[in-house]
């Protein structure tokens, strides 16, 4: 049973299609968008090996001229060098303003493909076909694109909306279990910041740690509710002027930990999980949230087999210093997204360093 969620923004609107076992019909969906003839598929070798042929055959069958370019997997390749290689291939195949870049992969591929599409010929068509849970519920929606700088995550980027987000949940069967859990961190995030029903639905599940423990109907419902939560926020605040900042719940400390560990020791979802535990504890210490609610959140994180503690080798002071480099710093103040209830959060800029330090030290002892 397919679902369609509409993203409606002042200058652009597009659909998020969630349709199990439908990857072979992607050409038909692109055809309905009246795009130019050339489509370049950007993927990584492993994902392309699984799904590249299905996507390319569908596009060719619909009459598109199709090319492909592969980027090695991982945050370490999310660089301007990788983007430069995409430009080289785009030039080789003479991609035009009416041409399309199609991202087939997880959040890293989606972010880079979107940034390349935003900047090639000052903007060409862009389609997201996410293959990880994290990309399905978060990275593929909302138009944030970009690459990392050695000193910070996603410091180079642009807001650039796709023409279509096409989600086939069945591709998750080839997703490594660790990556599935990483995506579940973002799902839990939506339950905490926006959708109490989703939070309750996650609490009702016996396990959230692998695809095998969730049936397709529940999985599709979880994906749909998560996508809708992000769309609700993005429709109100496309470029993070205010409300959209709540989507960064767990990301403030999470990004600092990712950066300090060189984007290689823990993945994005694991970092967000640690960041959510930290934000929950900061909220409790700030009198904004109850210990009981904080524990309910942490129980979900545990149920998804995600990390809840900080590696003892990471110095708390170094984490606090790294927070100052974050994109979300405003007038020198680090913005924290802190929960006040299940399904509701607040944006705070006056969290004392001593409170942050205390929480970080506590999390090293667990």
TrEMBL record:
NAD(+) binds at residues 107-111, 131-132, 144, 153. Its EC number is 4.2.3.4. It holds the Pfam family DHQS_C. Zn(2+) binds at residues 186, 251, 268. Residues 183-329 form the 3-dehydroquinate synthase C-terminal domain. It is found in: Cytoplasm. Pathway: Metabolic intermediate biosynthesis; chorismate biosynthesis; chorismate from D-erythrose 4-phosphate and phosphoenolpyruvate: step 2/7. Its cofactor is NAD(+); Co(2+); Zn(2+). Keywords: Amino-acid biosynthesis, Aromatic amino acid biosynthesis, Cobalt, Cytoplasm, Lyase, Metal-binding, NAD, Nucleotide-binding, Zinc. The keyword Metal-binding applies. NCBIfam families: aroB. This is 3-dehydroquinate synthase. The lineage of its organism: Bacteria, Bacillati, Cyanobacteriota, Cyanophyceae, Oscillatoriophycideae.
């Amino acid at each position: 049973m397919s679902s369609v969620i509409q993203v409606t923004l002042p200058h652009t609107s597009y659909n998020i299609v969630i349709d199990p076992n439908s990857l072979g019909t992607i050409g038909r969906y692109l055809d309905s968008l009246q795009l130019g003839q050339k489509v370049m598929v950007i993927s990584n070798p492993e994902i392309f090996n699984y799904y590249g042929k299905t996507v390319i055959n569908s596009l060719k069958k619909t009459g598109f001229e199709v090319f492909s370019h592969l980027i090695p997997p991982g945050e370490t390749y999310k660089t301007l060098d990788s983007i430069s290689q995409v430009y080289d291939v785009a030039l080789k195949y003479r991609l035009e303003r009416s041409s399309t870049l199609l991202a087939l992969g997880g959040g890293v591929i989606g972010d880079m493909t979107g940034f390349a599409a935003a900047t090639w010929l000052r903007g060409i068509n862009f389609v997201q076909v996410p293959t990880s849970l994290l990309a399905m519920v978060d990275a593929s929606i909302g138009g944030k694109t970009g690459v990392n700088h050695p000193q910070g995550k996603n410091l180079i980027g642009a807001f650039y909306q796709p023409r279509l987000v096409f989600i086939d949940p069945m591709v998750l069967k080839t997703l490594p279990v660790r990556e599935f859990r990483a995506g579940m961190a973002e799902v839990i995030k939506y339950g905490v910041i926006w959708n109490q029903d989703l939070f309750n639905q996650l609490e009702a599940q016996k396990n959230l740690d692998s695809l095998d423990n969730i049936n397709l109907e529940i999985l599709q419902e979880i994906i749909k509710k998560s996508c809708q939560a992000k769309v609700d926020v993005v429709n109100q605040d496309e470029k993070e002027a205010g409300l959209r900042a709540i989507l960064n719940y767990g990301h403030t400390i999470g990004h600092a930990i990712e950066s300090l560990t060189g984007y290689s020791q823990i993945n994005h979802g694991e970092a967000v999980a640690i960041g959510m535990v930290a934000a929950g504890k900061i909220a409790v210490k700030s009198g904004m949230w109850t210990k009981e609610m904080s524990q309910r959140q942490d129980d979900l994180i545990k149920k998804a087999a995600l990390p809840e503690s900080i590696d003892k080798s990471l110095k708390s002071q170094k984490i606090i210093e790294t927070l100052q480099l974050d994109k979300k710093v405003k007038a020198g103040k680090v913005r924290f997204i802190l929960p006040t209830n299940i399904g509701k959060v607040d944006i705070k800029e006056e969290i004392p360093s001593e409170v942050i330090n205390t929480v970080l030290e506590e999390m090293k002892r667990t």
